[in-house]
Amino acid sequence: MTKATSIILAGVGGKGVITATNVLAQGLVSLGYDVKVSEVYGMSQRGGSVHSQVRFGEKIYSPLIEKGTADYILGFDQIEALRWGSFLKQEGRMIVNHTDLVTDTYKGKFDDSFDQYSHVTFIEGEAIAKETGNRRNENFVMLGALLEALGFEFGEWKGTLEKHVKKQYQEESILSLLRGMQELKTNGTKETVYGV
Questions:
Q1: What is the pLDDT of residues 133-180, one digit of tens each?
Q2: Which residues fall within 8 angstroms of residue 167, CB to CB, at 6 or more apart?
Q3: Alpha-carbon distance 33 to 43, whole Å?
Q4: Which of 81, 25, 72 is nearest to 49 (CA)?
Q5: What is the DSSP letter of 15?
Q6: Pairing mode, if any, of strands 119-123 and 88-97?
Q7: What is the DSSP letter of 169?
Q8: Distance CA 93, CA 118 (A)
């Protein structure tokens, strides 16, 4: 990948957005990419909006992603994916954790919600994380789905996980990431593609 790839990771406090961003950025650097990251924590301790912007490629000059230019939006919940949807380019892909919508934090309309985007894939992040032994690892499930969409192999990321995830959480985190990769691979045919 020599062109710049732009990714927005969006969720709420406590969903592991920042942890996933850090692992993603460190892994990309270890693979030789130029990486720029911008993070906004917001009211993260209260379940408020948290997002980060990651850009990587051969040479990146700015971490900021303009509206309509993101290649991927990784939504750790549906609300935050919708909130950042205007940043997705028309042919971009949205990968969304299929959690329940909580309508009190999203000011948009749910009538048309995801059908306004060309490529949306839902991942059962919470359910998969529970199966792997730790419900809080849904961030690694979602990160695994993103890595699969980007075309990376697990072997390229194992060392990063071992280096940047605390030893007592590594096994469950690695399993969750692998399950996320597998989920996107096996359920790729379930991608919801809407005409725009």
A1: 888 899 999 999 999 999 999 999 999 999 988 888 889 999 999 999
A2: none
A3: 31
A4: 81
A5: S
A6: parallel
A7: H
A8: 7
CA 139 to CA 188: how far, in whole Å? Answer: 19
- Contact in structure between 126 and 99 (CB atoms under 8 Å): yes
User: d(Cα 126, Cα 121) in Å, to the nearest integer?
Assistant: 15
| Residues 87 and 73 sit within 8 Å (Cβ to Cβ) | yes
| Coil/strand/helix, residue 119 | strand
Which contacts qualify for 161-169: CB closer than 8 Å, 24 or more apart? 161/23, 163/26, 164/22, 164/23, 164/26, 165/23, 169/134, 169/137
pLDDT in tens, 76-130: 988 889 889 999 999 999 999 987 655 455 555 554 578 888 899 999 998 999 9
Around 23, how many Cα atoms within 13 Å sit in the side-chain half-sphere? 29
Quote the tokens at residue 77.
């919940």
What burial class does residue 62 get, using C-beta atoms within 10 Å of its C-beta: 0-12 exposed, 13-18 middle, 19+ buried? exposed
Query: Taking the complete model, does pTM exceed 0.85, yes or no?
Result: yes
Which tokens sit at 61?
């000059």
**Distance separating alpha carbons of residues 89 and 85, to the nearest angstrom:** 9
Phi, psi of 34 (to 5 degrees): -80, 130
Coil, helix or strand for 167? helix
